[in-house]
Amino acid sequence: MRCRRAVIAVLLILTALQSRPRAHVGSPDVFLEASAGPYRLLVTVRPPHAIPGVADVEVLTTSEDVRDVHIVPLPLTGAGAQFAPVPDRAMRSVEDPKLFTGHLWLMGAGAWQVRITVNGDRGEGTMSVPVPTLPQSTLAMHPVLRFLLIGFWLLLGAGLVGIVSAMAREAKLGAGETLDPRAKRRGRIAGAIATAVVMGIGFLGNMWWTVEATAYDRYVYKPLTMTPLVTGFTLKLDLRDPGWIGSRRLDDFIRDHGHPMHLFVVSPSLDRLWHLHPNQTTGPDGRTLFVQQLPNLPAGKFELFADLVHATGVSETVTAKLEIPDVAGTALSGDDSAWSASDVPATKIVWVRDNAPLVPKKLTTFTFRADDANGQPVKDLELYMGMPGHAIFVRRDLKVFAHVHPSGSAPMAALDIAMPSNPSHAQHLTAPPSTVTFPYGFPEPGQYRIFVQMKRAGAVVTGAFDADVK
Ligand SMILES: [Cu+2]
What we know:
The chain is an alpha+beta fold. The chain is elongated and about 105 Å long. Helix content is 19%, strand content 38%. It has helices spanning 2-17, 143-170, 181-219, 412-418, and strands at 30-36, 39-46, 53-61, 66-75, 88-89, 91-92, 99-106, 110-120, 123-133, 225-231, 234-240, 262-266, 272-276, 279-282, 288-293, 300-309, 315-324, 337-340, 348-352, 364-371, 381-382, 390-395, 401-404, 435-440, 446-456, 459-469. The longest helix has 39 residues, at 181-219. Copper (II) ion is lined by residues 257, 390, 403, 405. Copper (II) ion binds at residues 257, 390, 403, 405.
């Protein structure tokens, strides 16, 4: 076990060399702003690419009086959630005394939480961050490591063969004696046997490696598949499980801010956006279907991103492509909304930002303000699905998609499971001010578009912003 851990650790180090997130969402890091008792915290959890693996945790406090921070990983639900192991102490950063960092082993795929306990002048406070661990890939061995390992194997093997054949040949050789042909033959036979043994060990080792790799392959996260089907203006989404961990089911979706599914339809150029909420039904064969009455849609190709949360607390974004002729649909209703780059809205959303360049992996608080037609901050924003705002971060190549709220990137439904009694994430129940903030960090460089949605006078207002992340 220890040796396997060592192999995994080496592979983890090598991922840093060839880090290439391949998840369809492409944004695995969890950002959360919440309270641990009296302390306000901004937390980043970066889950590992491979499981078991090490998650990086960063806790940023807003107050000076925090003495120490302890972190511990535990399953989000089930018996394991009740019995926390001994927490690790997070290290205070030398440069920034309000920043604490730590590393935690996450041992299985599925829904985890990182529990954070803060001690300071105002007593103790606790909060939990839901962290879905979705093993992203089997890591290919780095060519340099492969070359080194084969080299060492040949070197050690040759050494062993040399020692064995020398032993057989010369062990009984007295001082001053010369080798007779029989001894030389004995040496050659022993050398041949040793070579066969070394090759055999190599062969068996390779077999063991392949078996392990195949077993792990089954464990690598496989997103649900979704097949869209349009008849008239009815969109049916057929979900299927390609097979992953046994605890994933298709009949356990829970509502996340009021809806079992949040469906985002975007045009490839990202100049059109629809935010829809399909209803869950059961197909004739018992399979889970989601059904949406479509609004007017122009003919063309669209990308679908569907956010779902399981009862286990695992959240998934399922993607699909949709190609349709002109659809004459129904009027938008309920929480559904649409946006086009050609809209001229009465309420304008403004990105309030400094000139700091946008860099990947950095936790940033994105601030947006709603202005009225005269350029004055509005005072009459309403909650949109229980929250002052919703933000969607999409990379132009559509390989990164994240749905973020003022509390961060963890879905509300998962937060409710992680912190049922902590009302801090329910801050949105008060009337929102004209400014909304979203904590988020871009996973990778690239050209992004940020969609921000707020609600005013019963109408959803959408703003689109371009971000160049270098
Ligand atoms: Cu939202």
